[in-house]
Design a protein that fits this description.
By secondary structure, this protein is α+β, with helices and mostly antiparallel strands. It has 17 helices and twelve strands. It has a single domain, classed as Cytochrome p450, CATH 1.10.630.
Length: about 400
C-alpha cells in the first residue's frame, strides 16, 4: 500500500486507482479497520455490507458538525492540519443529528417534492438532446465534458435558479472541496470562502426576488413559522449544488465506462431497453459514485461486527465496499445489468438517505438511454489508461474519451 503512519496504511494513489481490491482485503480481515486518510487523519473504515448499513443508521455514530473539529484534531496523526470546511458550508442536514436534522429535512422535503422532480423530466431530456447534438457533430468527445458534467450541473443550476455563467468557477471550487483530503488547508479555505461568498449572494438575491423555482421554495419554505436561517440556507445550497451534480456526473460516466468494458452487457441493454432502470442500479452498486460516506464519529464505544470502535473515533463507511460484499451480492465483482441490485448503499441508508436519489436516477436513465438510442459508442482511449479522480470521497473518471457514430449510419 505504500506509506504508513503509526503502523497504519495511508490511503494514497494505489487506493484511488483501485479501492475495490483494497476493500476486499480489509473485508476479509474485519468489519472495520483503522487506516489513515491522505492528510493524516486516523479513521475506522467500514467495509462489510451489514455493518455499513448499521453504521449509516445507528445514532451512536454522530454526524453533528459542532464536535467535528475536536474529534478530528484528536485523531490527527500527521503534522498537517485536518481538512475542515468553511464554517458557513457545514451547517446542513448531512452534518446534523436529530432533532436538528429532522427540522431541516422536513423544510427541504417541502421544496423537494416528487412532483417537482418529475416535472423536470422533459427539461432533462431537452438538455440531454442538445448536448448529444453537439457531441454528435464532433464525433469524438470526452464524455465527462460533453455530457456527464454539463447535464446535472445545468439541471441543478436551473432548479436553484443559479446563473450558469459561473459554472466553470463553481466546478473548480467543487472539485477542490470534494477531494478535500488531498488538498492543502489553504486551497480548501480559499475554495470554501469563494463558494460561501457566491452562495451568500444567491440567497440574498432569492430573498429579494422569489420565483417559481426550487431555490425560492427553499428560501421561503415554512413549517409552522419555522424557516431556514441565512447560514443554513447557504450550507443547504452548497449541499444541493455539490451533491446535485458530483454524484450524477460519476453515475453517467461510470455507467458508460463499464458498459463499454462489458460489451455483452451493453448488447443486452440495447436488445431490451426495459433493463435500463436495473442497469442504472447495477452501475450504482458496481462503481458507486460516492466511495466513502462523509465523516461520522462515535459517541461511545461501539461494537461493530468483530471489532470495538472506541468513543471519539472518526468512522468512514465505504459505500463502495459494502456494495461489493459477496455475502449480500453474489459474484460482486461481475457487472451484470440483469442483477437485482436493490438494497445497494450508493445513496446511503437511514435518516441521511440521499434526498436527490430520484433525480439522480432519472438523469442517469435519460442520459445513458438517450446516448445508446442515438449512437454506437466506442472507447477512444485504452480503458487501462483512464485516470480516476484523486480523493477518497468521490469515485469518478477524470475523462472518458469516446467516439460516436449515429445509429444506422454504418
Amino acid at each position: 500500500m505504500g506509506e504508513q503512519i503509526a503502523g497504519l496504511d495511508v490511503l494514497g494513489e494505489d487506493y484511488f486507482a483501485d479501492p475495490h481490491a483494497y476493500h476486499a482485503r480489509l473485508r476479509r480481515e474485519a468489519a472495520a479497520s483503522q487506516v489513515v486518510l491522505p492528510r493524516g487523519t486516523r479513521v475506522w473504515l467500514v467495509t462489510r455490507y451489514e455493518e455499513a448499513r448499521l453504521a449509516l443508521a445507528d445514532a451512536r455514530f454522530s454526524k453533528h458538525f459542532e464536535r467535528f473539529p475536536e474529534v478530528m484534531a484528536h485523531n490527527q496523526l500527521a503534522d498537517n492540519e485536518p481538512s475542515l470546511f468553511d464554517e458557513s458550508l457545514v451547517q446542513h442536514m448531512l452534518n446534523m443529528d436529530p432533532p436538528h436534522h429532522t427540522r431541516l429535512r422536513k423544510l427541504v422535503t417541502k421544496a423537494f417534492t416528487a412532483r417537482r422532480v418529475e416535472q423536470l423530466r422533459p427539461r432533462i431530456q431537452e438538455i440531454t438532446d442538445r448536448l448529444l447534438d453537439e457531441a454528435g457533430e464532433k464525433g469524438e468527445v470526452d464524455l465527462v465534458d460533453a455530457l456527464a458534467f454539463p447535464l446535472p450541473i445545468t439541471v441543478i443550476c436551473e432548479m436553484l435558479d443559479v446563473p450558469l455563467d459561473r459554472r466553470d468557477e463553481f466546478r473548480v471550487w467543487s472539485n477542490v472541496l470534494v477531494s478535500g483530503g488531498n488538498r492543502t488547508p489553504g486551497a480548501l479555505q480559499d475554495a470554501g470562502a469563494k463558494m460561501a461568498a457566491y452562495l451568500q449572494e444567491l440567497v440574498a438575491h432569492k430573498r429579494a426576488n422569489p420565483g417559481d423555482d426550487f431555490f425560492s421554495a427553499l428560501v421561503h419554505a415554512d413549517e409552522d413559522g419555522d424557516r431556514l436561517a441565512p447560514m443554513e440556507l447557504i450550507a443547504m445550497a452548497f449541499l444541493l449544488l455539490v451533491a446535485g451534480h458530483e454524484t450524477t456526473v460519476n453515475l453517467i460516466a461510470n455507467g458508460v465506462h463499464h458498459l463499454l468494458r462489458n460489451p455483452d452487457q451493453l448488447e443486452k441493454l440495447r436488445a431490451d431497453r426495459s433493463l435500463l432502470p436495473g442497469a442504472v442500479e447495477e452501475v450504482l452498486r458496481f462503481e458507486s459514485p460516492v466511495n466513502q460516506a462523509t465523516f461520522r464519529y462515535t459517541n461511545e464505544d461501539v461494537e461493530l461486527g468483530d471489532v470495538v470502535i472506541p468513543k471519539d473515533s472518526v468512522v468512514v463507511v465505504s459505500l463502495a465496499a459494502g456494495n461489493r460484499d459477496g455475502s449480500r451480492f453474489p459474484d460482486p465483482d461481475r457487472f451484470d445489468v440483469t442483477r437485482q441490485a436493490a438494497g445497494h448503499l450508493a445513496f446511503g441508508h437511514g435518516i441521511h438517505y440521499c434526498l436527490g436519489a430520484p433525480l439522480a436516477r432519472m438523469e442517469g436513465e435519460i442520459a445513458i438511454g438517450s446516448l445508446l438510442d442515438r449512437f454506437d459508442v466506442e472507447p477512444a482511449a485504452d480503458p487501462d489508461s483512464l485516470r480516476w479522480r484523486d480523493g477518497t470521497l468521490i469515485r469518478g473518471l477524470e475523462s472518458l474519451p469516446v467516439s460516436l457514430t449515429p445509429r444506422g449510419a454504418r
